[in-house]
Specification:
The complex is a heterotetramer of chains A (294), B (87), C (759) and D (161).
Chain B lengths: L1 E4 L13 E4 L4 H11 L3 H5 E2 L2 E2 L3 E5 L2 E2 L13 E6 L5
Parallel strand pairs in B: 1-7
Antiparallel strand pairs in B: 1-2, 3-4, 5-6, 5-7
Chain C lengths: L21 H5 L15 E7 L5 E7 L1 H5 L3 E6 L10 E4 L3 E4 H8 L4 E2 L5 E7 L2 H9 L2 E6 L6 H4 L15 E2 L1 E2 L1 E4 L2 E8 L2 H7 L2 E9 L11 E6 L5 E5 L4 H12 L6 E5 L15 H11 L3 E4 L2 H7 L6 E9 L5 E13 L6 H8 L7 E10 L13 H18 L4 H8 L18 H9 L2 H4 L7 E13 L3 E7 L5 E5 L7 H13 L6 E4 L17 H28 L6 E4 L2 E4 L6 E3 H7 L7 E7 L3 E16 L4 E12 L6 H20 L30 E6 L20 H14 L10 H14 L1
Parallel strand pairs in C: 1-17, 15-16, 19-20, 23-24, 30-31
Antiparallel strand pairs in C: 1-7, 2-6, 2-8, 3-7, 4-5, 5-9, 9-10, 11-12, 12-20, 13-18, 14-15, 14-17, 18-19, 21-29, 22-23, 22-28, 25-26, 26-27, 29-30
Chain D lengths: L5 E7 L2 E7 L5 H8 L18 E4 L2 E4 L12 E3 L12 H8 L9 H14 L5 H7 L11 H16 L2
Parallel strand pairs in D: 1-5
Antiparallel strand pairs in D: 1-2, 3-4, 3-5
Classes of the chains: A alpha+beta (294), B alpha+beta (87), C alpha+beta (759), D alpha+beta (161).
């Protein structure tokens, strides 16, 4: 591996100042599970590596009335170990407990997963359907952005050279709602998703009709895709097999997958439908609904 | 007596016989005796101080890598296992 | 002397003592190859070709040499230019020493993606890696050959203008510009096909894959002033490494000392040099110890793998299912150099069934992939998958129970195999009946799309030379040294055989595996041979030890030697019952009677007896994704005699796990230019703990008449049946017949969709 | 050339350790090459095999994916610190007793991962053990005996006063 300077700022101000002075020569270290591997393979060669984990804001989990705020460097494991978060945001736990295996989750962060901007990132579809908002800071100031607009392409995100992702904020889930994430991998663990899907549903008070549906799919486009068409297509429709299948069909029609070593475009199209349906089924169950056959 | 299995492509030397009986206490002796009985066969099985390239010998069911120098207990079953002709 | 036939009262054999290496391994103290740290040690790294087939026009290493911290750079030209010379490789096979040397570091041409072209040695690995980035190689890229069918074409690009055809057990002859071939024949296959009620024919395909040991290759070499080369490495055969190093570097055998470290898995992949000659050359040139360790990508690109194969099977059968004839063509990848395991595949392809008329044509096919290596039952799985699928196809066509069909055709002792050689003593029908009467066989299937599959396999492991040294110490302890590295617990299984013979507890024996200077020549730990063949050497040494101790007892008692006998651990006088000495008591007297006794034995058995295995698997299929979920798995194996039943069962479970990986998820993926795409354990998918169920094992014991305790080889055969069993279960579940491996979810889904469209 | 060397103080298996390293050196390299704690193994160097698993501040991690410089003031547990003198940890005993190892190369990583599991979930189901250990590849055993060993050690630890 090439050599580099290692910095450990203890405040956001110190961190943003470093980002301003080093810009694209610097890389932020959160869990390191992508960065260190990338540097070792020679794909990433930052002159400066900045460890963000000593800054309290970067690793805090704050659950308040207005929702959940996660420091961008918070490890997946700290998220899934948090019972309160698990109760309120089960889809987030689905993602946090599926990225890599246990010893990856001890380090890997949701923020890092998002910044890495991989089309198959296991947290991003979940963040999108949960309406997560990214807080982006630099010494120039702070801005916020819905996560669905964060990724621009494979390994490309909206951050300017002096900017960094500070926090992710999740609004409280609406009543009668439920979220779920699932993925398809060839093995049962330790794989990159061939296709992954997250769904959040809001049902009416009788739990028999969809009020709002958000669906996002990974690994079928250059970025994790928010397929509003699929969600919109079943708004106000009854909660049954036919409706959910229809959402699956619409999602499949939106998929623009490629073939690579992890799967063919055809397989990904089929899986888009199946993973959408399965995410919706689980989300409905978590919202207190039942998928009836008629 | 040793029982020798003749490879299919060499059975014209033995008038079509798949098996012949020959005495000898090592493979070298067996090949010499075979050649006496079926002139020309020996040449197919050995080349100088080694088995013909491409030929393997099995004695009582096991391939023996001593080849020409493998010893026998006078009541052995011997198989010559050939590779195919080149080309 | 004890014989397995009728023997029931073993004292040590059949028990399950705790392994001698256990504490070292669970505390992290066990020394593996990479755990060596020598003073002033330097670290080497290898530059690998990014092209599958290219001429090396020029290499400029000047910038790399100039980097501070770099102590040397090597290219192929720095090694002795060798003539093509075929040398015996342990005895079971031969190897062209020039091929072997050029596989370690290319001279004029790179033959696969990952072929070593240069190396750098530096103060640490990071600097060595930076040096590699500064080496400039000018390549002329040639068209690669990546598929068997392309390599066999007349106009295919040629890898080698001339080559020494491979020999792995059987010899091949050059038949194509990129292949050597051989033919096996029993009776007249044409006759069988003419007389048959049913003729079936199908093609099968499997892909190249890696042995997947978790421990990377690592070697440390020190070169002394008097030209002694000391080598610490991870290997299945330190004598093989010694020979190969000596030949490649033109160094006398008695000046190469190889110490085998604890080995973190081998499975057939660790008996050949890769980085050893390079580390040795650096050690010689720098005068300092040099360590080279491979990265996982180095290993996937540059070591192993095991070949993919194209297989055609044609079977002739009677209405009642009796097999009359078989005609197989096996084309296996050899990779960049000849000598892949297609011959061992052919010898075992039809063995286990009695087929009077059969022929097999085999091709050892050169193409631009790494030199193929053995992998647990070398070549066995692909052809077993093909044959066991065919038996299932036949059973379904004739509406026969697949197990009954196998019973009808099962080979029994004395039936002739394809070589014409009669089968040694086996218990095949007994094994199949054990499957039939096991609760698993009749248990109800559960799940959405469940299915059950069966496959049956037979394998002959290797015999070859093994050596053992036994010392009886005056304190009653016994030292055992053997020349075969311990891959899985053989120190214990060998100590148990010594203890059984000597009538002492196994805890009295300590076992080590000395370096090549300190024990007589031993062939590698391969071919399921260690417990069997090294066991024979241990048994023979123990008998010698007892003879000498009997002499000493006679001396001590002042009686005639012929009156002293040894049984159940006690020396007795046949006529005077007051004269008895236990082994330990006798050992205590040794100092007075001439000192400790050391005996040595080297034996060379011809084979280690047939291993028979049958596997039964239940699956559930997710028809929406194509994913196969294994629900229950039972492995049955006839092991002759289980010395340590837990280790035997562990071997069976390990074989199943590897076979399942081969069947469902593991394969090298190449792009069109011949670049290996899956060079990490993320994308090279070996089974995780979530991909396998608890694997049940059933051990049967039909003693091997050629071993005093009845031992047969154990380790290899269990890798073979999983693919066939899973493919048959898949057909049972959803009615699709997979003829290619791996049966990934994508491939299964595609076939399911085809079936739906068809109906 | 720039000298990147940094001085790091950390606690390893209860003992304070100070070492010098470059930022590019992983915790795995530090343990093995600088501190000669070679019980922790390298299998893939990219977080996909688990052979290098150690417990960092109470959480099992792949030490190949941690920089040595990140270990400043951290508490690290490795396989070398598990036994209490000659008295093996119940997990170590169970791995030997149940033949949960063959070559033994993946064993230290598996045991450390399992220790982390049992510290947080004293009596996990077999399914839970399988999920937790899915990060740790073993090529020899087929896992059956490993799962059994961990389950048995859990029981034993749970029954201890």
């Amino acid at each position: 591996m090439h050599n580099f300077d290692f910095k450990k700022p203890s405040s956001v101000t110190e961190l943003t100042a470093m980002m301003t002075s080093y810009g694209r020569d610097a890389r932020l270290l959160a869990g390191g599970t992508d960065l260190i591997v990338g540097m070792r393979s020679g794909n990433l060669r930052p002159a400066v590596v900045i460890d963000a984990k000593k800054i309290p804001t970067m690793v805090e989990i704050q659950l308040e009335k207005d929702g959940l705020t996660l420091g961008a460097a918070t490890s997946c494991r700290r998220i899934w170990e948090n019972r309160q978060v698990a109760d309120i945001y089960p889809a987030l736990i689905d993602s946090a407990s599926l990225i890599g295996g246990t010893s990856i989750q001890g380090r890997a962060s949701i923020g890092g997963n998002l910044c890495n901007a991989s089309p198959s990132a296991d947290s991003v579809p979940t963040l999108i359907v949960m309406r997560a908002v990214a807080t982006i800071v630099s010494s120039r100031g702070t801005r916020t952005l819905p996560v669905q607009d964060f990724c621009l392409g494979p390994r490309k995100n909206v951050l300017a050279d002096d900017e960094l992702l500070l926090q992710l904020h999740f609004p409280p889930p609406p009543k009668h709602s439920g979220g779920a994430f699932n993925r398809f991998i060839p093995r049962n663990e330790m794989d990159i998703a061939v296709v992954n899907a997250a769904a959040e549903v809001e049902l009416d008070s009788s739990h028999t009709r969809f009020v709002d549906v958000r669906i996002a799919i990974g690994a079928i486009a250059p970025t994790p895709l928010f397929v509003s068409e699929a969600g919109n297509a079943i708004k106000n429709k009854p909660v049954n097999r036919k409706t959910i299948d229809h959402a699956g069909d619409v999602a499949m029609a939106c998929a623009k997958p490629i073939s690579d070593l992890r799967g063919t475009a055809d397989q990904r199209r089929d899986l888009t439908r199946i993973m959408t349906i399965r995410a919706l089924e689980m989300a409905v169950r978590r919202a207190g609904g039942t998928v009836t056959d008629d | 007596m040793n029982r020798i299995w003749i490879p299919a492509h060499l059975q014209h030397f033995t008038n079509g016989s798949e098996r012949v009986e020959i005495s000898g206490s090592n493979i070298r002796q067996v090949i010499r005796a075979l050649d006496n009985k079926y002139p020309g066969l020996g040449e197919q099985l050995r080349e100088g101080d080694m088995l013909t390239p491409g030929m393997t010998v099995a004695i009582n069911g096991s391939v023996d890598h001593l080849g020409l120098y493998a010893t026998l207990d006078e009541d052995s079953e011997i198989h010559f296992i050939p590779a195919i002709e080149g080309g | 002397m004890k014989h397995a036939e009728g023997q029931v009262d073993f004292k040590v054999i059949g028990t399950t003592p705790e392994r001698p290496d256990g504490i070292e391994k669970v505390t992290g103290r066990a020394r593996f190859a990479d755990d060596i740290h020598l003073p002033r040690m330097l670290f080497g790294k290898i530059l690998r070709s990014p092209h599958a087939h290219a001429i090396i026009k020029d290499i400029d290493t000047s910038k790399a040499r100039a980097l501070p911290g770099v102590h040397g750079v090597l290219t192929g030209g720095d090694f002795p230019q060798l003539e093509s010379t075929v040398i015996p490789h342990g005895g079971a096979s031969t190897i062209d020493i020039r091929d072997l040397a050029e596989n370690c570091i290319a001279r004029d041409k790179t033959l696969y993606d990952g072929h070593a072209v240069a190396a750098a040695v530096a103060d640490n690995y990071h600097i060595a890696e930076q040096a590699l980035e500064l080496i400039e190689v000018d390549y002329e890229i040639l068209e690669p050959v990546l598929e068997i069918e392309d390599a066999l074409k007349d106009d295919a690009p040629v890898l080698h203008e001339t080559f020494s055809p491979g020999r792995f057990i059987l010899q091949t002859e050059k038949s194509h510009s990129n292949a050597g071939s051989f033919k096996l024949k029993l009776g007249d296959a044409d006759r069988a096909f003419q007389n048959a009620d049913h003729v079936l024919e199908e093609n099968f395909q499997t892909r190249c894959l890696h042995q997947g040991y978790i421990e990377p290759h690592s070697v440390t070499v020190e070169w002394s002033h008097n030209d002694i080369m000391s080598v610490w490495t991870s290997t299945q055969g330190h004598f093989a490494i010694r020979e190969q190093l000596a030949f490649i570097l033109g160094h006398p055998l008695n000046k190469v000392k190889v110490t085998p470290m604890e080995i973190g898995g081998g499975f057939g992949g660790k008996d050949q040099v890769y980085i050893e000659p390079i580390a040795a050359m650096f050690a010689k040139k720098t005068g300092r110890p040099v360590k080279i360790a491979m990265s996982r990508a180095d290993m996937l690109r540059g070591t192993g793998p095991s070949p993919g194969a194209n297989i055609r099977v044609k079977l002739a059968a009677k209405k009642d299912g009796t097999l009359l004839g078989a005609d197989l063509t096996l084309a296996y990848e050899a990779g960049a150099y000849p000598g892949g395991p297609v011959t061992s595949a052919a010898l075992q392809a039809t063995a286990r069934y009695n087929i009077p008329d059969q022929q097999i044509l085999g091709h050892d096919v050169l193409l631009n992939k790494p030199k193929m290596k053995q992998y647990r039952a070398p070549g066995g799985l692909p052809v077993n998958f093909a044959m066991e699928s065919m038996l299932d196809i036949l059973a379904r066509k004739l509406e026969l129970d697949p197990l009954e069909l196998r019973l009808t055709n099962a080979m029994v002792t004395g039936d002739r195999m394809i070589t014409g050689i009669p089968c040694q003593k086996i218990g095949g029908k007994e094994l199949l009946k054990a499957v039939q009467t096991h609760p698993h066989f009749t248990s109800p299937l559960t799940g959405r799309n469940p299915g059950r599959g069966l496959a049956y396999a037979m394998w002959f492991g290797a015999g070859m030379t093994s050596s053992a040294v036994l010392t009886a110490n005056p304190d009653g302890s016994v030292k055992l040294s053997v020349g075969t590295p311990d891959l899985s617990g053989t120190r214990m299984t060998l100590a148990m055989q010594a203890a059984e013979t000597l009538g002492i507890p196994v805890s009295s024996i300590s076992v080590s595996i000395p370096d090549t200077d300190s024990i007589a020549f031993s062939f590698m730990a391969v071919g399921s041979r260690t417990t069997h063949s090294t066991g024979l050497a241990v048994y023979d040494a123990a008998q010698q030890l007892l003879r000498q101790m009997t002499e000493r007892a006679a001396l001590y008692w002042d009686v005639d030697e012929t009156d002293v006998t040894f049984s159940d651990g006690v020396f007795n006088h046949q006529k005077d019952s007051t004269l008895t000495l236990t082994f330990t008591e006798m050992a205590h007297l040794l100092e007075k009677l001439g000192g400790p006794i050391t005996v040595q034995s080297s034996v060379t058995p011809k084979s280690n007896g047939a291993q028979l295995t049958a596997h039964l698997v239940d699956i559930d299929v997710d028809t929406e994704t194509g994913k196969i979920e294994i629900q229950r798995y039972t492995a049955f194996q006839d092991v002759g005699k289980a010395i340590h039943p837990d280790y035997v069962s562990g071997q069976m479970q390990g074989g199943v796990a590897q076979g399942v990986g081969w069947a469902l998820s593991e394969a090298y993926q190449y792009d069109e230019a011949g670049h290996l795409l899956n060079t990490t354990l993320l994308d090279y998918r070996m089974p995780t703990s979530l991909d396998l169920p608890d694997i049940e094992t059933v051990i049967l014991e039909t003693p091997n008449p050629n071993h005093p305790f009845g031992v047969r080889g154990v380790g290899e055969s269990s890798i073979m049946p999983p693919a066939g069993a899973l493919a048959n279960a898949l057909y049972d579940a959803v009615g699709i017949r997979m003829t290619a491996l791996p049966m990934t979810p994508g491939a299964v889904l595609e076939k399911l969709k085809k079936k739906q469209r068809g109906s | 050339m720039t000298d990147y060397t940094t001085r790091i103080t950390t606690v390893i298996n209860g003992q304070e350790e100070t070492f010098f390293c470059e930022p590019r050196e992983s915790l795995l390299e530090i343990l093995r090459d600088r501190l000669q704690l070679t019980g922790t193994k390298e299998g893939c160097n990219d977080g996909n095999c688990g052979a290098c698993t150690v417990i960092l501040d109470g959480v099992s991690v792949n030490s190949c994916c941690v920089l040595g410089v990140e270990a400043e003031n951290a508490s690290i547990e490795t396989i070398e610190g598990l036994a209490d003198g000659d008295s093996l940890h119940p997990l170590q005993q169970a791995f030997i007793r149940e033949t949960a190892l063959q070559c033994g190369y993946c064993t230290p990583g598996l045991i450390m991962a399992a220790k982390d599991l049992l510290a947080h979930e004293p009596l996990p189901s077999n399914e839970r053990i399988r999920l937790w250990l899915a990060n740790n590849l073993c090529r020899c055993t087929g896992y059956t005996r490993i799962i059994k060993a961990v389950a048995q050690a859990a029981k034993e630890l749970h029954q201890k006063p």
